[in-house]
Amino acid sequence: MSGFLTVLYAYFIEVIPAVLIGFFLSGVAYELIPTGWVNKYLGRKGIMPILSATIVGTLLPVCCWGSLPVAISFYKKGAGLGPVLAFLIATPATSISALLVTYKLLGFNFTIYVFFGVILMGIVCGLIGNRLKLTPKFAQKEACPHCNEDVALGESHKHGRKPKEVIVSILKYSFWEMPKELGVELLIGIVLAAVVASVFPIGFFIKHYLAGWFGYIFSVIFGLLMYICSTASVPLVDAFINQGISVGAGMVLLLIGPITSYGTVLVLRKEFGGKILAVYLALVVLLSVGLGLGYSVISR
User: Fold this and answer.
1) Which of 4, 30, 65, 152 is most buried, judged by most C-beta within 10 A?
2) Residue 10: how many CB atoms within 10 A of its CB?
């Protein structure tokens, strides 16, 4: 029990600041980014909205827990499913700090491959996401009584408000609306991750059973079960590789781990349904294994 509480406390210390940053960024995005802009650049079909969401995601210094509220805010503003899925892959999978640590521990080639691999994953998942049928949950529209623009249902008219009113609205959305929408799922996700981390005998299996294909299988299962942020996962992957896991299997873990937290799974299930979640997870696993195998071949 003490081990579980220690791990749970460590997760809270690591995750909660990122969640709060994500909530705040979601409030800023929801309040200040015009609905028309989101519809224009992220709500259309085709590759450009997906590419935009992927690039923005790779630049934001936010982990998967922090990216969830931002992605849902974009979705509420009218972004398509494809760009949302691309954003949810690219944002937690890499960051400036993660790339710097990867370069330091695993080298230049590994770092470049991870960066462009994440972009490829985001684009592929986004394109497939745009082909899935999904009834919009939030992007209903009504005419704004003050102008000729359409605004999302429930979005108040924002012209001419005082800065204090804007700040209050941002804070209310960030720390009241978003916790109500995602708070339970995020809390359950943190607790589940702590349970797995405190009871799973990882070291024994790494040492005795993870040669060849077993390393890939382990990386997929471990990555799906554990939440590992993009920066913190790099030393762990480096340690696994030094203990005998192939570089390809290490690549798989580095890609899957940050993308498939319990919070992401639970929120995707709630907002988009089980079918979308199943497709998302299948694509993440297949693309990660494919990229891992590819790097294993070219790095010989």
Assistant:
1) 65
2) 12
Q: Which residues contact 176 (CB under 8 A, 6 or more apart)?
A: none
Return all residues near 215 (Cβ < 8 A) that are at least 6 apart.
244, 245, 246, 248, 249
- In angstroms, rounded to a whole number, what is the distance separating the alpha carbons of residues 120 and 89? 10
By the 8 A CB rule, do 235 and 270 touch? no
Tens digit of pLDDT for each residue in 106-148? 889 998 999 999 999 999 998 998 888 766 555 444 444 444 4
Residue 46 and residue 75 in contact, taking contact as beta carbons nearer than 8 Å: no
Q: How many CB atoms lie within 10 A of CB 146?
A: 11
Q: What is the pTM of this model?
A: 0.68
Centre a 10 Å sphere on the Cβ of residue 135 and count the other Cβ atoms it contains: 5
pLDDT in tens, 194-208: 775 676 666 666 667
- Closest by Cα among 67, 72, 29, 98 to 238: 98
Closest CA to 5 of 221, 194, 257, 209: 194
Q: What is the pLDDT of residues 219-259, one digit of tens each?
A: 898 888 876 777 667 777 887 787 778 899 989 988 998 88
- Beta-carbon neighbour count of residue 103 at 10 Å? 16
Query: Tokens 């070219």 label which residue?
Result: 298
Q: How many CB atoms lie within 10 A of CB 199?
A: 10
* Cα separations in angstroms, 85 against 12, 81, 131, 164, 281: 25, 6, 12, 34, 11
- Rounded to an integer, what distance in angstroms lies between the CA atom of residue 253 and that of residue 190? 19
Q: Which residues of 260-291 are buried (b: 16+ CB within 10 A; e: fewer)?
A: bbbbbbbbbbebbeeebbebbbebbbebbbeb
Q: Parallel, antiparallel, or unpaired: how do β-strands 141-143 and 150-152 relate?
A: antiparallel
Residue pair 243/206 in contact by the 8 Å Cβ criterion: yes
